[in-house]
Amino acid sequence: MLTNASLLPYNTFGIAAQSKYLTTVTSEDELGSVLADASFQSIDKLLLGGGSNVLFTADFEGLVILNRMGGITLTGQDQDHIYLRVGAGEVWHDFVMYCVENGYAGIENLSLIPGTVGAAPMQNIGAYGVEVKEVIESVEAMSVSEGTKRVFSSSECQFGYRDSIFKRELKGQYMITAVNFRLNKHPNLKLTYGDIEKILDQRPDSERSIRAVSEAVIAIRQSKLPDPAVIGNAGSFFKNPEISNSQFETLKAQYPTLPGYPLPGGAGVKVPAGWLIEQSGWKGYREGSIGVHDKQALVLVHFGGGTGAAIKNLSERIQASVSQKFGIALSPEVNFIG
Q1: What are the sequence ranges of the domains in the chain?
Q2: Could you tell me the pTM of the whole model?
Q3: Per its Swiss-Prot or TrEMBL entry, what cofactor is needed (predicted)?
Q4: Spatial CA neighbour of 191 closest among 114, 105, 96
Q5: pLDDT per residue over 149-199, tens digit each?
Q6: How big is the CA angle at 224 (ends 252 and 335), to the nearest 5 degrees?
Q7: Which of 7, 50, 268, 303 would be a feasible disulfide site paired with 115, CB 3.0-4.6 Å?
Q8: Catalytic residues
Q9: How far is CA 2 from CA 31, 98, 126, in A?
Q10: CB atoms < 10 A from the CB of 39, how many?
């Protein structure tokens, strides 16, 4: 157990915040012991994985628990599926590579997303036409207040767009310890989003595989997104907003190059937040140690020596700017801590 511990190594934004207490857990038993410790009953607790989707806007006056609960276990299989239980502390991209190597299909489009397996259901991570909810059977979690374990079925997780019950009604009440996945033995490749198909068109049809899709996604992400090891960031800072069909048509008439992706059942249109931010003049913007990435306006960046509060302030100005120009409200995908 550390006191007044630096959180700089544990968040990809590279913010120099501190936590009053910090400890590491490698098993559910260890997590249970920490939660049962009377010394920490009355203070806030934060289970932190890769720190890739958080922004510390101030020091954390509580206990940060570093999640290092690992392990990948084959729990069953049938004619079409492989079932795996994965510890919440496993690195997400390492798990994706494990599946690609073994021919388990379903998450190859989610390659190179930073963070841990435990964060995947919390955020319902998604990219290139795939959301993780499509392959989640259940989520195992531990009650922060009682230390008891509960298994949430996929439907009980109430997955939404970059959202789940763990970010809403149960926020801060449960810590995810493991995720149970259902992967496919027979790939159904999703190639229509982004430049995946364009990249694969340069290969023989015989090379269209989950490995090829994964490699294409990695190439695309590396070309557009900054490496957190080089420039502090948390990937996409905002969700892509969903607007009504009528609002989209009105905006399309005013801005003919506005991209839009129809939602299932004609429920509206998803608009790229990065396009809105770029058109509002923020792409490549910099003020001192913080700014907006020059290749992808959806990514806010930290060059070092800045504060989370300053980045949050910048994000709020971007939101106001987009709202004023387009009448669209941007919602942060990043979780503010502090």
Answers
A1: 2-67, 72-184, 232-337
A2: 0.90
A3: FAD
A4: 105
A5: 999 999 999 999 999 999 999 999 999 999 999 999 999 999 887 789 888
A6: 80
A7: 50
A8: 162, 236, 333
A9: 16, 33, 34
A10: 10
